[in-house]
Design brief:
The complex is a heterodimer of chains A (537) and B (334). With 537 residues, chain A is an alpha+beta fold. Helices cover 31% and strands 20% of the residues of chain A. Chain B is built from 15 helices and no strands. The chains are: A alpha+beta (537), B mainly alpha (334). At the A-B interface, helix 1, helix 3, helix 6, strand 10 and helix 9 of A face helix 2, helix 3, helix 5, helix 7 and helix 9 of B.
Chain lengths: 537, 334
């Protein structure tokens, strides 16, 4: 037993020796023993600047499922988008689509039949050619899985294969944004061989959650959970990208991201908050790319289930007039944002440059409140920690509303809880953000204002106006863009005047990038997605 | 001894039952709908109901609980709502990383803390004692997120000695997984480049994490040493001409360690908590970040799986502490 007693002590001593041995080898080695220094010193030098055919992008967190038929989280799309191809693709920086897998397409006059002719020669990463059968398989699979993207494609009644290079989608009703939805991440064509990976009838969901099986220029070679994603070129893709290896490296701490960008260990850092970006102003190696995005930040005014006073449009207008928009964007986004002009953001067709825009006018706000006979109004503002700037934004709004005599109580809850409350309408005002999945004003007008969409699915103001309903529903049934623009703009005038939302701002996309990186094109429809195949260093 | 282990392990079953029950019902009481999180913001009611049905969320809570516990008995932790993968896979990926970090920090704290504690006690009220105490107060009062950042600034940015994040360089392949501890696995497979590289990545975060722990060890060792050194048997030993390291280690430290082990063992829990913050700062691919993401997503199976495994880890560590205690203290043995 006596010997046993020594066990813990000797263990400690041995460990102490081991550790001191380790620490004494790790440092002097770098100075005294050049012959053996490879791992110890080369590593920092090597990582100080990544090789020219390797791109390292710092991202803040790991991703959920990568299955295009399931994922509705656009932060995961940066991995999957370059690994799959779609029938049509967004064209450069524009919100218009160009041929992708399909070289041409036509739509029947009633808008119910879309026929696509495929390009020949595209292959999945395992060499299997992309055929019309694969297209049918992909959409049938999405519809069978019935998760997030199902909602967008539920309009598809049938996919018919006409020949190996021709496929027809039969829709149950005219849906003008259909073409645009095919360019979104969930339009990615999946290799039918995924059937071989099926487990318990999951249609390969488990496999595709962490693997890619597409025909895009890249494929996911390795996903080291919590550490990185490694993309390498698809050997069968006609494009031969300059970047042979692309890492998406997970670094959750913003300061660590910044330091590694400065040291050249990463080339692009996504997770640096706007207030720290000023640090790169005079940097010789890093530039901050600024682009207007279609990402909007706004406030839902609960027009039917919230405070009674909010049913009166004059009260909602008063709130819209109470906000100093310039000061707000300055405080919250360091000025990297533009005040909205109605619901459809600038950069998307249907935006109306001549639409009315609320301005900061305290007197007008006060008189509107007086007219509505409202005094001592007290409102709750719902928000969560989902967006880092919301705390400041809530406080700023509180100060603005205090000026017109409205007391704003801040109600900060957990993200998932806030979603539940938005869905049931359990709030007066709520902060929110929105970005379009496909490039069509439908994404804003029909989701935000159709009285059939109450709750989280879009109409979070619980707003109902028969005339607006009629205009936007009509706009969703015709294919002529000019005609639709007219209808949407009419509806827009009403919803700006009635102010069921406080239209705050359109955020700029800001991305600190090493000056070595070339060829990156920002597309507002592909927020956070890189055109890797065209980029180089 | 076997009796103690058996008793403790049977208690473990009760603890785990309590843990699953509590976490399950607590996580289901929180308002929020995981199906909603999964279908995205724009889905219609039909899609939502379908996903609820697929996830089994349309069942009464107690039915869901029974299904869950049944799964646990066959080591099936369910499927993560967020990642769509078996939670077991994620556990196997992330848990070892956290444990490797926490255990290394724990050992560092003991290895560095005990000598400092002894030094402080022996050189009571001298420069060494004050210095040691200052050091430990600094440790216990510095939040990990701050000391971690300072560590990165000094050792990564200024000196360039250590990397600032991750477990390995991107260019170094991970060792074949046996235990999931990179240091052990690379040793076992004789993969030296992975060993040195992972050690090199481990030092800075482990140092940061052990800094707070160090103070607890140092202060406890100092206090117990002082108490022991004042006792009569030490005087007797001194009178018998026993002195120096022999006296300190063999006679004094052994007794002083008994209370220390209790305190240090209990604080392993807080070490795991600190590991979560440390992981964020150093991009350490442990479960901290994973759990936080899972909570934001209301990913019940993932949250529960990790709570479960942490409870097991904590109970096992405490069992080990008790066994050490038992070995050190003859009174308990008899």
């Amino acid at each position: 037993m006596r010997r046993l007693l020594h066990l813990p002590l000797s263990l400690i001593l041995v460990l102490a020796l081991a550790l001191s041995a380790c620490s004494s080898t790790s440092q002097p080695q770098t100075e005294n023993k050049p012959a053996e220094q490879n791992e110890q010193t080369q590593a920092p030098e090597q990582s100080a600047s990544t090789p020219s055919d390797t791109l390292v992008v710092a991202i803040s967190s790991d991703q959920g499922t990568l299955d295009p038929a399931v994922s509705m989280d656009n932060s995961a799309w940066k991995i999957t988008y370059p690994a799959y191809q779609r029938l049509v693709e967004y064209d450069g920086a524009s919100t218009e689509v160009k041929p992708g897998l399909a070289k041409e397409w036509k739509v029947s006059p009633d808008g119910l039949e879309w026929t696509f002719t495929l390009n020949e020669g595209f292959k999945f990463a395992d060499g299997t050619p992309v055929t019309a059968d694969a297209v049918k398989f992909t959409f049938d699979r999405t519809l069978a899985i019935k998760k997030g993207p199902y909602d967008v494609y539920s309009v598809i009644q049938e996919v018919k294969v006409n020949s190996p290079t021709s496929v027809t989608f039969v829709l149950s009703k005219n849906f003008p944004p259909f073409l645009s939805t095919l360019a979104a991440n969930y339009g990615g064509i999946v290799n039918p061989k995924v059937k071989e990976k099926e487990q318990n009838g999951d249609l390969g969901q488990n496999f595709l959650a962490s693997n890619t099986m597409g025909s895009g220029p890249y494929q996911l070679e390795e996903w080291k959970k919590g550490q990185y994603f490694k993309l390498t070129p698809n050997p069968h893709h006609p494009a031969k990208p300059a970047l042979k290896t692309v890492y998406f490296k997970i670094i959750s701490d913003p300061t660590a991201q910044r330091l590694q960008l400065e040291q050249g260990e990463v080339d692009i850092a996504e997770g640096i908050p706007v207030e720290q970006l000023g640090a790169f102003e005079n940097s010789p190696n890093i530039e901050v790319l600024q682009n207007p995005s279609l990402f909007v930040d706004y406030v839902y005014v609960n027009t039917s289930k919230g405070n009674e006073a909010l049913k009166d449009k004059r009260v909602r207008q008063a709130l819209s007039y109470a906000i100093d928009y310039d000061a707000l964007t300055e405080a919250v986004q360091q000025g990297y944002a533009t005040q909205m002009r109605g619901p459809i953001p600038k950069g998307l067709w249907g935006h109306d440059e001549s639409a009315f825009q609320y301005s900061y006018d305290v007197e007008k706000a006060k008189s509107l409140l007086a007219e509505a006979g409202v005094s001592n109004l007290e409102l709750d503002l719902l928000y969560s920690d989902n967006k880092p700037w919301w705390e400041t934004e809530a406080l700023t709004l509180q100060a603005f509303f205090a000026e017109i005599g409205v007391k704003l109580n801040l109600n900060k809850v957990a993200y998932a809880t806030s979603r539940e409350m938005m869905d049931t309408g359990d709030f007066d005002l709520s902060l929110g953000v929105w970005s379009p999945d496909f490039a069509d004003p439908f994404m804003f007008m029909n989701y935000w204002f159709d009285s059939n969409n109450f709750g989280l699915s879009g109409n979070r103001a619980f707003y109902k106006n028969d005339q607006v309903d009629q205009l936007i529903r009509q706009a969703a049934t015709i294919n002529d863009q000019a005609e639709r623009t007219k209808l949407y703009q009419q509806a827009q005038q009403i919803v700006i005047e009635e102010a069921p939302y406080l239209y705050l701002y359109q955020k700029d996309s800001l991305l600190p990038v090493s000056k070595q990186v070339k060829g990156y094109v920002y597309n507002p429809m592909l927020e956070g997605i890189y055109n890797l195949a065209d980029m180089s260093k | 001894m076997m009796q103690i282990i058996a008793k403790r392990l049977s208690l473990l079953a009760f603890v785990l039952f309590g843990v699953t029950l509590m976490t399950f019902f607590m996580s289901h009481v929180i308002p929020g709908d995981p199906a909603r999180m999964m279908v995205g913001q724009r889905a219609d009611e039909e899609t939502l109901q379908e996903v609820r049905r697929q996830l089994g969320l349309d069942q009464p809570v107690w039915v869901q609980y029974i299904t869950y516990v049944k799964g646990l008995l066959t080591a099936d932790f369910g499927t993560s709502i967020r990642t769509q993968q078996p939670v077991m896979n994620d556990l196997v990926t992330f848990f070892p990383a956290t444990m490797e970090l926490a255990i290394t920090a724990f050992l560092m704290a003991i290895v560095i803390g005990i000598p400092i504690g002894i030094l402080s006690a022996v050189k009571k009220d001298t420069f060494w004692d004050h210095g040691g105490r200052m050091f430990s107060i600094a440790g216990v009062s510095t939040p990990v997120f701050w000391s971690g950042l300072v560590g990165i600034l000094v050792f990564y940015k200024l000196l360039g000695w250590f990397p600032s994040s991750g477990r390995l360089d991107l260019s170094v392949a991970a060792p074949e997984q046996i235990t999931g501890f990179y240091l052990l696995d690379s040793l076992l497979t004789g993969n030296w480049s992975a060993f040195t590289n992972s050690l090199w990545h481990l030092i800075l975060p482990a140092m940061t994490l052990s800094f707070a722990q160090l103070a607890i060890v140092t202060r406890q060792v100092r206090a117990s040493m002082l108490e022991v050194l004042g006792q009569e048997y030490i005087r007797t030993a001194l009178a018998n001409g026993i002195k120096g390291p022999l006296l300190l280690v063999r006679y004094a430290l052994r007794n002083a360690l008994i209370p220390t082990i209790t305190v240090v063992g209990l604080s392993f829990g807080s070490l795991l908590g600190g590991a979560v913050v440390t992981e964020t700062i150093f991009g350490w691919p442990g479960m901290g970040k994973y759990v936080v993401d899972s909570i934001a997503y209301l990913d019940f199976p993932a949250i529960m799986g990790f709570t479960f495994i942490i409870s097991v880890g904590y109970v096992v560590i405490n069992l080990l502490v008790d066994l050490t205690y038992y070995l050190l203290n003859p009174q308990i043995r008899e």
